[in-house]
Hints:
By secondary structure, chain A is of the alpha/beta class. Chain A is about 35% helix and about 30% strand.
Amino acid sequence: MNQAIKKCLLQVQNLGVNIGGCEVLSGIDLDIRVGEVVALVGPNGSGKTTLIKTLAGEQRLDQGEIFLHEKHLNNWPVRDLARSLAVLPQKSVLDFPFTAREVVGLARTPHDTGRKVDARIVSEVLDYLDAAYLADRLYPRLSGGEQQRIQLARVLAQIWGEQELPRLLILDEPSSYFDLAHQQMLVELVARLADRGIAVLMSLHDINMAMACADRIAVLCAGRLQAFGTAQEVITTEMLRSVFAVNTNFVSEPESGQRFMALSGSVRHLPLESDVE
Amino acid sequence: MTALRPRLIGGAKLIVLLTLLCPLVLVFGVLLGPTGLSVLDGFSAQELMIFREIRLPRVLLSALIGAVLAMSGAVLQGLFRNPLADPSLIGISAGASVGASAAILFGMGWLSLWGLGGLSMVAFGAFVGGALAVMLVYSLSTSSEGTSVTTMLLVGIAISALAAASNNLMSLMADNEMLRRMSLWQMGNLDLANWSRVLLAALMLGVFLLLLRNQAASLNAFLLGESEARHLGIAVNGVKRRLIFLTALGVGIATAMAGTIAFVGLIVPHLVRLISGPDHRTLIPASGLLGAILLVLADTLARVVLAPAELPVGVVTAFLGVPFFIYLLRQQRVRRP
């Protein structure tokens, strides 16, 4: 029993957030275990980004508590927190002519491991993400997908290497600009990170990707946690109809047995031209 | 080819090069002028006087002001996360000049303006005016999405207009002597250089450098974005306050000592970034050195080009800076249509 609690890396209790008098999140209970991959899905405006910002300590919460490794999030010294928790925002703007390698290197700011170790970690991470060939290019000149890969490499480099502290990676829609090969790379990447004991929380639009890579899936709808469990438990035709307003079928990939969702129509009907008139 | 060689030379090399170049430029600036100083024949008494009381303080003041303006520009661009932020373009110099005018107007009665005390008071006024302007521009133009260049420049226009109006109002209230002083350095002029100014500028540069120590890593992280910097363990609000204070201090010093000298803070950091990249650990010292070199050269040009008459150095930097700024604007537009 005690063991199960110890293994809990991030614990969220009854979290609520109001923005401008509006209730954006309420009554959220969530936990992420060491080495676990949790996907956060939900329709537009369901509060995914707000939840991620709150967990990252960027958005003030009006209710509830967040514990990282059994310690209240507010009680973490900033530098220790930066060594344990890395966050990839949805969009980053960087107008200055850093090389990709320098951008990844900025991740080592909270560490004092020394120049040599930092350089080795940066190279390792770039290799890991199939981005070594971008290392000496100027970041502002890269394409959207390339920039996103470099930013992903940056947050990875922040929590890379052996350390005592627990590690959690929070990714806000990490694959939005990725091509198919790199989406697949992301799926394999999070699995390998989990093997290293790094927990991952990521918001995703792609339900199939969530099913492929997450140990558990959290479904947000209108600021509430609709469901939280394994893909098998959570991703059902009923849930998809009520939360996402789509009709779906499930198919299995013959070799791996992996379940996939296929859309078979929208529940909401778009107005016909005659209706608009 | 740029893809393979993003840097002309490394930052450390650039700093060594500029450190070697700087004394040469200082000597050049001292020797060149309407009255030639001949080193080989030995100075006459009159030449010695020109050297000691006019040329040397002027060249030293140019170097100090150039250094502080270029470093303030670099810090400001880091704070705004935008390479187009320049103290004179976004209204900070204008704010500082109002503060300095106010200090002259209201402080004249009880302090002699030419002494160290009077100068410090003008500098303090310039600092307060500059600080208010930075805070205003920052709060209006910067959000989590980054800095809006349009808003930043528009707020700069608004502040400059307000500053011009205030300065006009104050010049109505001023007597002849004050008026002459106010208008002299609103043009951006180094010909009031004397040893007490050099001393004060050097002291304030010392304070500026002391506060700037160890900020390079924070500034680098800051370029990624405010929340990104926070996630990297930077105490963002504290750093921001310090950077605002620093730019106001730097621009305030420069404005109090030499009036509004535009574009040095824009051109110099940009050149350094082109040569050796945007890493603040080398950008700031290299900008300081190159800023000193550039302003000494610009002031030498201002002294000799129409000799025996003199151009205000602000005119020279504006002629160099405006085409440069337009080129940068075009570049930004090409990259992000």
